[in-house]
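Worked example

This section walks through a single chain of length 217. The input is the sequence exactly as stored; nothing has been trimmed or padded.
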Amino acid sequence: MQEIIQFCLDNLNYWTVTLFMAVESSFIPFPSEVVVPPAAWLACNPDNGMNIVLVVIFATIGADIGALVNYYLALYLGRAVIYKLADSKFGHLCLLSGEKIAHSEEYFRRHGVPSTFFGRLVPGVRQLISIPAGLARMDIRKFLLFTTLGAGLWNSVLAFLGYLIHLSAPELKTAADVADKASEYSHEIGYVILAIVAVVIVYLVVKAYLKKRRKSA
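Given that input, the structure is written out below as tokens.
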């Protein structure tokens, strides 16, 4: 795995960003922190020929591709085969287990269709939330919409993190250094973003409820 990560860091461009984010979003364990923040960091230097907005766009396209792989595998293989694969030697090599799949299914049941948005922001759920969506035969248009929004938000956070590292840590000279730095903060940032989104949704729900009560009074 370390050799693959190093290859990614040594060859960062829009195509490798798309490829490795597709891998990260599938059932194969690969950290997004070693893709988007270093790519965004490189994009801060105009000599590298990359644009930070395009980094986010291509990363999100890759995330959608990986999510679709999980979705269609779950849709066509079914629950029994998915759980059997997760508990197999191959599944364990991919850091999967029946317990993790069950956790993602429970998350999907509790939060419904929007879980494919929120799940993209939750460590440990991000890569697996597409599986219960496929098992539940979620409408593909809604799945792609919520997945794109969630992945786009998360990739924007990672890109912004790469930008902040560029500003605050000029002593870092390599993409590998940036990836190490980004890994220190990415999970915490994901939880903060999730909390902010939850607060905004609660506010909108309460506001709509109060407006409805005023109309009916």
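What to look for: The mean pLDDT is 82.
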